[in-house]
Design goal:
263 residues; mainly beta
């Protein structure tokens, strides 16, 4: 006995308007934009003016923004691709990589245009004149992995070497606070410390950073003695930013090569 299932590929197009007048051809309520993690998402838009007349997008740049529904912080922002300027058609591509750092849930979206004089103009999502709509990020059910961050640039200050800043779980708006580190060294002898910072923008003041205790370690300063290869660590923290601090011993002849972070 055999059975068959019918699957559908939807080409959803959302209508937006630049008109400030009541436009009865616009939806009474705007529908949510659905984005699925683990896959690339293409969303099409038709932008109109009065009486559902297509907006001529020639010489205009159309911008798409996603913001956190609670605090208004920008989650994603980029220009849209105009696919047919005279018919007011544009699209936005949001890839699975973009969604690695966006937790599942509801967000606001806005669209605006910028002309050659850099004048910004609002684009409305429904006939009531709202300029924001709703995006829902959902789990596609497909396997997915998060992008790995790399710290391989180190600056010397006051006898310590500091890495470039890496995004913690709260900066990436992740629901989990788990972090996995892989430290790469070659015959390295010295002290290593993982640090966190809670500022919205990573602080340039070393005193604003605090040490993080790695699981299985008894101290935040970890001693290395002629260590080569990859040393893994795991820790749980709601920190916004992460960096690595190390100090070679006086007799060190090895190198501290890089650190990989997955959260």
């Amino acid at each position: 006995m055999s059975s068959s299932l019918t699957l559908y590929v939807y080409n959803n197009t959302y209508t937006l308007s630049t008109s400030t007048k009541l436009n009865n051809s616009m939806p009474l309520y705007d529908k949510n934009i659905l984005l699925y993690s683990g896959v690339d998402n293409k969303t099409n838009f038709k932008i109109v003016t009065d009486n559902n007349t297509p907006k001529n997008l020639t010489s205009l740049t159309v911008h798409f923004n996603i913001t956190d529904i609670e605090n208004g912080e920008t989650v994603l922002s980029r220009p849209m691709t105009v696919t047919n300027a005279t018919r007011g058609e544009a699209e936005i591509d949001i890839t699975q990589s973009d969604l690695y750092s966006i937790a599942e849930g509801f967000y606001n979206f806005t669209v605006y245009t910028v002309d050659s004089s850099q004048v910004r103009s609002a684009v409305y999502t429904d006939r009531a004149g709202d300029i924001s709509g709703t995006v829902e990020v959902k789990n596609s059910g497909l396997p997915k992995t998060r992008a790995t961050q790399t710290a391989d640039t180190f600056s010397l200050r006051n006898t310590y070497y500091y890495s470039n800043n890496l995004s913690g779980s709260t900066t990436q708006n992740l629901t989990a606070s788990n972090h996995t580190l892989a430290v790469y060294t070659t015959n390295f002898t010295g002290k290593v410390q993982i640090e966190g910072n809670l500022d919205n923008t990573a602080s340039s003041n070393d005193s604003d950073w605090f040490p993080l205790l790695m699981n299985g370690e008894s101290a935040t300063d970890i001693t290395y003695t002629g260590v080569s290869g990859i040393t893994p660590y795991f820790f749980v923290s709601n920190t916004k930013w992460i960096r690595i601090r190390y100090k070679p011993d006086a007799g060190n002849t090895g190198t501290f090569d890089k650190v990989l972070l997955r959260n």
